[in-house]
Protein 1
Amino acid sequence: MNAQVAEAVAPEKKEFWRWQENTWVDESKDWRDAKIVTCGIDVGSVSSQAVIVCDGELYGYNSMRTGNNSPDSAKNALQGVMDKCGMKLEDITYVVGTGYGRVNVPFAHKAITEIACHARGANYMGGNKVRTILDMGGQDCKAIHCDEKGKVTNFLMNDKCAAGTGRGMEVISDLMQIPIGELGPRSFDVREEPEAVSSVCVVFAKSEALALLKAGYTKNMVIAAYCQAMAERVVSLLERIGVEEGFFITGGIAKNPGVVKRIERLLGIQAIDTQIDSQIAGALGAALFGYTLMQKQGAAKAA
Amino acid sequence: MIANYGYKDGSGDYYISIDTDRCIDCAAGRACLTACPKEMFEIITDDYDDEVACIKQANRRSLAYDCADCKPSGGYASLPCTTACTPGALKHSW
Amino acid sequence: MITAGIDMGSRSVKVVLLEQINVDSAPQLQYAVKKAHLMMPGELDADQAAERAFSEALAAAGVARDDVKSVFATGAGRKQVAFATEGVTEMTAGAKGAVYMYPNARTVVDVGAEEGRGIKTDAEGKAVDFAGNEKCAAGAGSFAEAMSRALQLTLAEFGEASLKSDRTIPMNAQCTVFAESEVVSLIHSSTPKEDIAKAVLDAVASRVCAMVRRVGIEGEVVLIGGMAHNPGFVKSLKGAMGVDAVSLPDLPEFVSALGCALIAAERQH
């Protein structure tokens, strides 16, 4: 019975919400030249990343969908980047785990919360002028305020409600039958900007979206209304911690201009641009924490 | 650091914020631990190695319900937790 | 004299036509329900749905529109009922209807498709206090409905299934969207569907109960709204509230419309 139910629950269909997995290493460098190689692994509810940092500089990363359990997801994420550059686990000096599965990263020396890691990662990616960080992950949303060193001064995390998370975006992508990567561009392909979907709750927003379609909205208009609602929600979270210039967005949603541009419009602030994949901020921060710790230990040994 | 625990959902904002700078050297003898009838507070070592109070993980997603007994809709003059926290580190958003 | 109460819920429209028969008798004997009519709006807009439901009710009762002295509306969509004389809140209507049916009722629990709330009422059926969790699907029937869909059961089967379980599995997810994934993983780990159903209904009941506690539980407790049809939910609610008995009207989804029609009648005097 249960097997039948499970099959029915996960029927074979096109998965519009699927996003790209990817691996990258800095070909201009050789990790063998580095004195200290540290690694950060971020096991999130939806995606997992492993980042390699050589002497405090980003060297490589791998980002993939989280599997059935945290230890395997951590291993697979790390294996992906190690394979790309011929590295072995024993070549890494220190491993820091973060993300919701951080305590289940098998080879981690330490676990640090994703709040602290995202702030640290954003400080590297966007520079020390970063003060306000928004992270929209698969199943949560974080608003962080930090100082010039990337130390957290105010934060909140919302992982209770799907509104304003990647999951909320996946729901609309599935409902509209449009690949998640196309939602952003499509949301701007409208004659005029519609009003935001009024329901915060994803369940109610879904019914509202269907009603809008019935009322003659095009799919693109519904997507625009939904992106605007998501932006409004996220901005209300940011306002609780106070928004300052030096605004940086991390997590999967940073790749959706439909939400990002609307957030910028509401705040009247441009987000700092980066060439680095926004999804690795947590793992990168974790690896950088590891590097600082190693430096301190080295200094302690030398003294 | 201001640590906000809780959430915002369709029905409203439910955050308990803890000002860790006021919490580190607690002058109230960690009175929050016993003041909360649901024992929602615990002491942790945070990411910057400070010993501070926080809301237990199990309660962070259900504050609207967990705190309901201390917040009758008719109004409650003072909350046990914020009253116990004499350094003033604790705040409710609703 | 005939009055009408229209409850524009999020899923369905409820109409009650009420006739005043004996002005001098006790309140309970003064009125008779001529017709209780429920309609699913389907593709219709809210204003069209109200009009259609009202016409259907009138036709079924054999009452001419001109004979209806006054129409009051309640529910989330009450403002869309163009022909209503006045709108009253769900709290006002629910308390009035519940106390009319159960004179000793002082605590009214109203759980519909999209809203759950606790109402404290006085002996006259006037709402004196209320607490609700609106605009979040987790505290109402739609949470149970979404989970029953994941289990491929109707809401009725879902309630029956939960009665067969005496295990308590906590649900971590508070959000309907996240809870769906949690239920799917419970299915994958071969958790019996009876246990999952109970876990889901327990979760809704505990949320509703927390809201009811905010107004205080006293006197007779009456459960109104569509979820009162679900015996599994009723059992979970009793457990969460720590009460032995909860009064269940025969037509729980019509209580607010009834309250509405009663208020319309009283205002005629």
Note: The domain at 13-127+279-302 of chain A is CATH 3.30.420.40 (Nucleotidyltransferase; domain 5).
Protein 2
Amino acid sequence: MFDDFFIRALVAGIGIAFVTGPLGCFVVWRRLSYFGDTLAHSALLGVTMAYTFDLNIAISVFLISSVIALILIQLQKKTNLPGDALLGLLAHSSLAVGLVVIGFLTFIRFDIMGLLFGDILAVTTDDLLVIWTGGALILIVLKIIWKPLLASTVNYELAEAEGLNPDRAKAIFTILMAAVIAISIKMVGLLLITGMLIIPAAMARNISDSPQKMVLFSIIGGLLSVILGLYSSLEFNTSSGPSIIAAALILFILSLFKIKQSIKLKN
Amino acid sequence: MNSNNNILVKLNNAGFRQSEKWLVEGVSLTVEKGKIVTLIGPNGSGKSTTAKIALGIYKNIEGSVEKYTTKVGYVPQKISIDWTLPIRVYDFMLLTETIEDSSIDEALSLTGVIHLKNKNLGSLSGGEFQRVLIARAISKKPELLVLDEPVQGVDYTGEIALYELIKKISDTLNCGILLISHDLHMVMTATDHVVCLNGHVCCSGSPLDVAKNNEYKALFGEKASQILTTYEHTHDHVHSDEGEIKKN
């Protein structure tokens, strides 16, 4: 059944949408979209490491992204630079270093476009295993830290005062971010992963009135984007990443009409 | 380790310094089960800081905090909620602990906002939100309740009712309350122990003791002292027929 590249891509995409849905909601709520972007940029370095040392791409990307996240936390403590400057510094320098390293790896033919924008032809049966087991693990951990993470998203001091240990939840969430980027990089591409996190969640925000509903709609939005995107990618012979994100954008635009309606109802 | 097992939280000479400036220092106080301890003092005197030290929100403190309970309810003075999060009053009630629906309804009814249960938190007025905050803190039936100006923005009649509710909660749940309040009437009628702060503890004791204290008078003025003393002076002595004062 997984012999067909398109079926493999579809199964991979569906697995990714289940994970990016809930994580994307927290990215939107906690204003972490630029943070996600930084981790995604650093993923290129992870990919080159994987080729250089012959490692699994997902694992290598996960390790590098986690290291970048740790460096960021340290820099935030030790310097007086604002958060966005630090994020920009790490995002672009890790991207640049990654590209320079690729230049040295002359023995490998690199598909840069595939790396940046996703390539459904590249998804192997092994990748499916990584996406589905990795994805399941991410969701289980997220379920465990859901309460402290949500509580500290609403109000940090309330969560801390009532004994929920928000700092630990935040640290674990950072690792989950690195993990979701690691499993989705092949499919969506490193320039567009943040879009996959944010756009379905933003769409869901327009049509939900509770955190749980937003997570649910965000997953549904992600699934629809993957299915629509991949079919059109096949139809029009476009890269998989941009096709999926464009489909997500269409869903977001549709969700705006719902807002208009509810505003009318209120008046 | 805990000689008196009614003690819920104990501050020993506690203080907190932020970027070389002491927000508050040398605070010792004890909150026990069923007792209301009130912090009073002018703006910037370290009341909220003291509450946050007691709650364990501030980590690098001077002195020490001994906490003997994990069942804590907190109503912060300032709460900024990010409205990128869609959240109803009902979801907010379940924020830090899973509570049965019946307890949620009961708490929301007690504070008079049951009709707002399914409303979006962002659509509430300041006073309504304050009532929801109090309902959330009491619905989890805490052992220690920390209330930082809990009735700010609440209308006058609501204010009285809420203070009565707070007093009732301390009796029925037998929980200890650390209260920050500017309402000296409330302080007088319901509080067991008053701590008057001004960067440090300037005086503490029963409401009457504090009202008589000269430092308190200097800080709040003679009038505030009169408010406090008019409440209690009938309780510690009786007047004889000749007008002489006899101590009880």
Note: Confidence is low (pLDDT under 50) at residues 232-237 of chain B.
